[in-house]
Amino acid sequence: MSAAAAKLSDVRDFWDAASCGEDLLLADESVAGYAEQSAERYRLEPYIPAFAGFADAAGERVLEIGVGLGADHEQFARGGAHLTGVDLTPRAVEHTRRRLALMGLSSDLQVANAEALPFADASFDRVYSWGVLHHSPDTPKAFAEALRVLRPGGQFRFMIYNKWSLIGLMLWARYGLAKGKPTLSLAEVYSRYLESPGTKAYTPAGAFALLNGASRDASIQIELSHGDLLESGAGQRHQGRALDIARKVWPRWLLRRVAKRNGLFLLMKGTKA
What we know:
Radius of gyration: 18 Å
Oligomer: single chain
Helix content: 40-55%
Number of strands: 7
Strand content: 15-25%
Number of helices: 12
Largest sheet: 7 strands, mixed
Order of helices and strands: HHHHEHEHEEHEHHHEHHE
């Protein structure tokens, strides 16, 4: 197996063990269980609906890269989109297929690698991906593929991670400073300790560079995540007493006022030139 294939396999294995949010938000695989997961997702991340544009997707050919548990995919389907979804893991595709079937909704769902999308150029009016492309071993290639399958004049909506985030700094303090490794870089922190192996984070300038000039009106907004604010469970990798204590004393009100630029979520949107 090549080094590139091994990296992709590591990412697939991590997310196939539990789709994003499955352990924290999904009580059971029923209509009620999926509805509760959606409600909690949009409570914790209230900026998603407006950013994704679920309400204005009717009639559009929409591709979601990385469907996860299918909450956003469900909303696009309810909005009347002509919907296609891909994920690296069979687990996520099956979750989303089951979810839509329970709701009486449909989509063309398939397992696929974001670095080699199985679609022709200019196949979609909108390409959407929330918190996925930074997990791909070759993120620039994944961006290039997402833009390749988007028609000129079509809309992209991508969320990737922000380098100078509170959660990144917390992980650096835990795995670097506290362990006597103050020279541990933030790139290493995200790659080794946040989520799947090789996870990356970008500055706004680095994020714009990923577009490679494909958009003249691209914009970025940064949002504090529930991870930055310690408002939820800590994900698939992080638990412990110190974290439980920090969650009780974390100055969320102050961080919302002074640390907006240090949110984990870097939201990119624009039009393909």
